[in-house]
């Protein structure tokens, strides 16, 4: 517990400074996080019995994240880069003697790269989210900082709410074959906490806080799904944590798993239903 507290005391201020600086610094930080998390993903896949081309997978994930930082370079470039990456990994799979080995290496590499590259939507959210009106309480943050802050606090509030409610009143277990500690009561507590926090942030960003009635549960359930998806990887690999990078917290993937699914969900909602 002491290690967790020390790690949090160091990491949270660093994260807030990166968010405050925004722009290239934020993109570089997300790229660094993606690289560490990608290495852990491919390590887990190897432990689960697959043979991915880890270096190619990490490179593909990083290229997708960096592309998100410079969306003006080429319209649709993200999809183009993914297509090129799939082709390159396919060519690499030709080096495997058995066709079955080549196929599983190809699939595992593409899966791992695209899975972790969903973190690129943290960067994309800052570029495509609605502008913050000058009259909004949080107008000084701007769109990039404001919307990414909403994403961060949405995920953190879900984790906190689910943990506190689940620990104190949680009784009804679900999906115990993936994560034996999850409870329905915890999910409900997390959804409520996220909805309240998202409503406050939407109001601060000049949006109708009633959107939180949809965006809050969507972000919360996406965060939970992201956590469970990583648990599937860890269980398949026979691992308790994705790594040992952060004392008391496990690996980088353990810290960002919820954002992998929550980031694209929040981005999609923001660009389609908000103004």
Concise structural overview:
By secondary structure, the protein is mostly helical. It has 10 helices and no strands.
Structural class: mainly alpha
State the helicity in percent bands.
over 70%
**Amount of beta strand:** under 5%
Helix-strand pattern: HHHHHHHHHH
Low-pLDDT sequence parts:
none
The major β-sheet equals: none
Helical stretch tally? 10
**What is the radius of gyration computed over CA atoms, rounded to a whole number of angstroms?**
19 Å
Please state the overall shape, judged from the principal axes of the Cα atoms: globular
What assembly state would you assign to the polypeptide chains in this entry? single chain
Amino-to-carboxy terminus distance: 43 Å
The strand count comes to: 0
The chain-level mean pLDDT equals: 93
List the helices and strands and how they pair.
Blueprint: H1 2-21, H2 23-47, H3 54-69, H4 77-93, H5 99-116, H6 120-128, H7 142-169, H8 184-204, H9 212-237, H10 252-273
Overview of the molecule:
This protein has 275 residues and is an all-alpha fold. It has ten helices and no strands. It is globular and about 60 Å long. The N and C termini lie far apart (43 Å).
Descriptive keywords:
0% strand, 275 residues, globular, 10 helices, mainly alpha, 73% helix
């Amino acid at each position: 517990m002491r290690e967790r507290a020390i790690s949090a005391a160091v990491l949270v201020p660093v994260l807030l400074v990166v968010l405050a600086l925004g722009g290239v610094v934020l993109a570089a930080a997300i790229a660094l996080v993606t690289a560490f998390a990608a290495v852990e993903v491919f390590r887990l896949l190897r432990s689960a019995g697959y043979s991915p081309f880890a270096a190619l997978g990490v490179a593909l994930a990083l290229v997708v994240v960096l592309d998100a930082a410079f969306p003006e370079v080429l319209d649709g470039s993200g999809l183009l880069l993914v297509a090129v990456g799939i082709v390159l990994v396919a060519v690499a799979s030709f080096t495997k003697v058995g066709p079955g080995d080549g196929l599983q290496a190809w699939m595992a590499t593409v899966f791992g790269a695209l899975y972790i590259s969903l973190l690129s939507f943290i960067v994309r959210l800052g570029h495509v989210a609605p502008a913050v009106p000058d009259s909004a309480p949080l107008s000084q943050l701007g769109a990039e900082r404001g919307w990414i802050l909403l994403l961060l606090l949405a995920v953190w509030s879900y984790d906190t709410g689910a943990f506190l409610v689940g620990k104190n009143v949680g009784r009804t277990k679900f999906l115990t074959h993936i994560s034996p500690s999850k409870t329905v009561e915890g999910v409900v507590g997390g959804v409520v906490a996220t909805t309240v926090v998202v409503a406050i942030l939407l109001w601060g960003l000049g949006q109708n806080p009633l959107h939180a009635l949809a965006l809050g549960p969507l972000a919360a359930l996406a965060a939970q799904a992201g956590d469970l998806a990583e648990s599937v990887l860890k269980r398949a690999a026979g691992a308790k944590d994705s790594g040992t990078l952060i004392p008391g917290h496990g690996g980088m993937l353990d810290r960002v798993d919820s954002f992998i699914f929550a980031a694209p969900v929040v981005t999609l909602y923001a660009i389609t239903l908000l103004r």
